[in-house]
Amino acid sequence: MENDKEERRGFQVKDRRRFSETGEARADVAEDAARTSAPPPPPAAEAPPGDEPVNFSTFVLGLSTQALLHLGEIPDPISNATQRDLAAAKHVIDILAILREKTRSNLEPDEEALLDSMLYDLRMRYVELARRVTKEGK
């Protein structure tokens, strides 16, 4: 009758502790653990270059690459055509400027130098192109 009640409960409690109350290793648990343990994971393959973690410097470099693309300095990687979109370039440069303002005094010196130099370079390129377009338009 007791066995019937145990079967109807639907679960069983098993003590899986590796050591007994006296501190001695329990052989039955070690054997169970060896049988049920998962096989070791396969060795990690090297991540492809596109799967590298993003840090602040790579984020800034990505935005500056977008700005250079819109300035027509580098070709579009998909169409391999060079196009200028000064409004889009200005937008990305403004994003970098906002990022610079919001992260002031919170960056490492090399991150700050990278962001400052990128902003300066992109702004100078934008001004030069905007002046050229204005002269050609008049």
What does this structure look like?
The chain has helices at residues 2-9, 27-36, 56-71, 86-102, 109-137. The relative contact order is 0.09. It is 58% helix and 0% strand. The model has no long low-confidence stretch (mean pLDDT 82). The N and C termini lie far apart (102 Å). The chain is elongated and about 100 Å long. With 138 residues, it is an all-alpha fold. α3 (56-71) packs parallel to α5 (109-137) and α4 runs antiparallel to α5 (109-137).
Biggest sheet, open or closed, and with what strands and sense?
Answer: none
Strand content: under 5%
Distance between the termini: 102 Å
Q: What's the overall average pLDDT, rounded? A: 82
Number of helices: 5
Radius of gyration: 31 Å
Helix content: 55-70%
Class by SSE composition: mainly alpha
**Overall form:** elongated
- Stretches where pLDDT is under 50 for at least 5 consecutive residues are none
Count of β-strands: 0
SSE order in H/E notation?
HHHHH
Please outline the helices and strands.
Elements: H1 2-9, H2 27-36, H3 56-71, H4 86-102, H5 109-137
Helix pairs in contact: 3-4, 3-5, 4-5
Features of this protein?
mainly alpha, 5 helices, 138 residues, elongated
Short synopsis of the structure:
The protein contains five helices and no strands. It is mainly alpha-helical and 138 residues long.
